[in-house]
Amino acid sequence: MPDANAPNQAAREAFYTAIEPERMSALWSVMGEIITPAPKSPCVPYLWHYELVRKRLMEAGDLITAKEAERRVLVLENPGLRGQSKVTTSLYAGVQLVMPGEVAPAHRHTQSALRFVLEAQGGHTTVAGERTEMAVGDFVITPNWEWHDHGNEADEPIFWLDGLDIPLVQFFDASFAEGFGEDEQPVGRPLGDSLARYGANMLPMGYEKKTPTSPIFNYPYERSREALEQMRRSEEWDPCHGLKMRYINPVDGGWAMPTIGACLQLLPQGISTGKYRCTDASVFVPVEGSGRTIIDGESFSWGPRDIFVIPSWREVVHEADDDAILFSFSDRPVQEKLGLWRERRGNG
Ligand code: 1HN
After folding, report:
1. How many Å lie between the centroid of ligand 1 and the Cα of residue 142?
2. Is residue 73 part of a domain?
3. Which of 20, 36, 159, 172 is 20 to 30 A away from residue 28, measured at CA?
4. How many domains in the chain?
5. Would you say the CB of residue 96 lies under 6 angstroms from ligand 1?
């Protein structure tokens, strides 16, 4: 930071004023703000209680149909990023409601989406000609530029969390979108086709990787939960994460989506995790259990379906009152590809 009491300070100020209309500025007066010694984000920690989000969504259900809204979603906007429709600097989150009998019409866009199902008695999404039924805890992917529509033929409303890479696509000025022209796209494959083809630790002979996104588009909760239950028997807990698994693309073992990394973790009853920080801001959704997460000393108590955000490089401790299962997502795949991702355990 240059000395504000320098003998020629007035001349310096005059110089800055002179070059401003010439669209130049002095790096030395802004360098400390743009190259920080550690991440310094306007994104802040926050928690949305599911009960409140659900109540507001039901009110929205009386005000507008899914078809009229195109997507009936309440955006979860980070209080530090107001007016930007962002939950973190790089990601978007919202909660979507589809009422019985409704359809959210088919469209496609260059933003990739994930769904994490919060409440469902039925309901489906169709992606690229294949339909999948949605059950609580399922992790469902809509790859970029694939047609997708949602429907609910059950008697109860369906709610899910949407996570999209909207701010990343915006950053690159690479947004394209179009409607299909009909409410629903034709279904050309049987239910469960992708999971059978790609989710059984086998690949069809001659399979060639053509896209960066996993060919599995519904990772059923039942299976992921069972994996964690089986693993816990070995009692090899990570001090900072309990038991944490990442959803993978079975074609290459990488993340299931190129821009968003998703994980499911088990925190055993009574755990208080070791201090941890990392450069990827994350959105967390507890599925089972209750506890609290302490972010830079501030405690956020959570139960099933609450949604909270941890910004980059904040010190985090999780405490579970009973066995807890947490889903989370972040931009970690992007940071890893760019060689930016870092973590730190313990103090520091
Ligand atoms: C979208 O297409 C969905 O398909 C949800 O359900 C949320 C937010 C912004 C832009 C597109 C969906 C969205 C979205």
Report:
1. 10
2. yes
3. 172
4. 1
5. yes
Tell me the pLDDT tens digit for each residue of 252-298. Answer: 999 999 999 999 999 999 999 999 999 999 999 999 999 999 999 99
* Helix, coil or strand: residue 265: strand
Residue 22 lies in a domain: no
| DSSP designation for 347 | -
What is the whole-number distance in angstroms between the Cα of residue 144 and the centre of ligand 1? 11
Global pTM reads 0.97
Would you state the structure tokens that stand for residue 301, as one six-digit string? 């108590």
Residue 125's domain comprises 46-177+186-203+216-345
Atom 14 of ligand 1 has which residue's CA nearest to it? 71
Q: 164: Cβ below 6 Å to ligand 1?
A: yes
Q: Mutate which of 67, 73, 152, 185 to test ligand 1's pocket (most atoms within 8 Å of Cβ)?
A: 73
b/e code 130-146 from CB counts within 10 Å (16+ = b): bbbbbbbbbbbbbbbeb
pLDDT tens string 126-178 = 999 999 999 999 999 999 999 999 999 999 999 999 999 999 999 999 999 99
CATH of the domain at 165: 2.60.120.10
Residue with tokens 């972040």: 330
- Say how many Å lie between the CA of residue 71 and the centre of ligand 1: 6
Cα-to-centroid distance, 70 and ligand 1 (Å): 8
Is 150 within 8 Å of 98 (Cβ atoms)?
yes
